[in-house]
Each structure stands twice: as structure tokens, then as C-alpha cells.
Design goal:
Largest interface: A-B, 28 and 26 residues
Order of helices and strands of chain A: EEEEEEEEEE
Radius of gyration of chain A: 13 Å
Largest sheet of chain A: 6 strands, mixed
Shape of chain B: globular
Order of helices and strands of chain B: EEEEEEEEEEE
Number of helices of chain A: 0
Structural class of chain A: mainly beta
Low-confidence stretches of chain A: none
Radius of gyration of chain B: 13 Å
Distance between the termini of chain B: 38 Å
Oligomer: heterodimer
Number of strands of chain B: 11
Shape of chain A: globular
Number of helices of chain B: 0
Helix content of chain A: under 10%
Mean pLDDT of chain B: 94
Strand content of chain A: over 45%
Chain lengths: 114, 113
Amino acid sequence: GAGVSQSPSNKVTEKGKDVELRCDPISGHTALYWYRQSLGQGLEFLIYFQGNSAPDKSGLPSDRFSAERTGGSVSTLTIQRTQQEDSAVYLCASSLSWRTGELFFGEGSRLTVL
Amino acid sequence: DQQVKQNSPSLSVQEGRISILNCDYTNSMFDYFLWYKKYPAEGPTFLISISSIKDKNEDGRFTVFLNKSAKHLSLHIVPSQPGDSAVYFCAASAGGTASKLTFGTGTRLQVTL
């Protein structure tokens, strides 16, 4: 595709429900990243995938958060038993490799937990 | 613990003048610095980067300056244009890669006519 595609663009859920956010990176990009931006905050690193290497999960805030990347392309970020503090914009980015600083971001998925 | 700080939440500059956006960092392991621009309802877009082996990097109207001893970097936009109005994020990483960026909270630039 032309750019990084994320879905859904908006998600409203009730506290305690599970949500899945999807990211379709730019074709050929081997590195994929998830960040989130809470209100009034900078972007917070969550997880990073590079090729077939084990992902760097050091930014995941709790074990309710998990992510996978299937076939080296599409990624899904799953949040189990959502809490109100999970409300944020979840941004996915991809790049040609982990060495380059030019991350291409999607438009984000805005999650609201009621 | 805010390792990357952008102390000015907003900045207003007249069209044609210079915009200077500032960023401070505390982690001495950071050696790669980037600026991203973000329009409302869009993802951030990469602007310019600088490695710690340099103190200046220029790309068209955008120049980034790095002062390692002060742990400070700045982005200069000359001349400023109305289309530059956006939120600007400073980001940093260690190990010379972009694998795990630490972002500042952003500065909203408004370029007025």
C-alpha cells in the first residue's frame, strides 16, 4: 500500500473488554513499531519487530498488552481487560530497517475506554 | 521520568521569520536525535535527524543543531511558512538506531500571516 494503514481509526469500548488494533505496514518494510500517545503526552514506545528476530517488548506497560506480527507483515496489538488509563491514540510505524530513523507512521487508532 | 523535554508547549511566529524549537535531554546514552512533525488527525512525519558525531544537519529550510555538552538540540525553520503550523516532536535514541525512540511532549508551532 501507499502508507501505513491502521484499523479501526476509532474504538470505544467498555472497561474490562478486550480490543484488537491492526496495522498494515508499508510493503517491504522489515521493521514495525507500536507507540501510543496519551492526552498531553509524547509518544510512548510499546513494542518493536525487526524481521524474524524476537520482538523488543520492553515498552509494554503491563501483561494485558501483547502484539504479534504474522508473516513479517501485518501486526495486531491486543489489549486485554481494558482499563480507562489505556485510553490513548495507538500509532503504528514501519521503516526499511531498524537502522533508519525515518519511521513512517499510520494515522493511529484512537481508543476510548469508558 | 521525562528523558526528552520540550519545555515550550507552543510557539507563534510570523511568516517569513525564523522558528526555533528547543529540546533538552537527560540521558547521556542518547546518540541519535530526530524531529517529527504532526498535523491533526495524521501520524507524525519524519523531518530531519542528527547523529551525535555531528553538531549540525541541514535540509532545505530545516536545520537541526546539537549541543552535546548542554544536552540540547534545536530545530530552526527559515523562513517559516503557514504550512509549517503543526506540532513538532523531538525524539532520541541510544545505539545510533531508531529502534526505540523516546519522544518529547511536542511544541505546537503556529505560523501567522
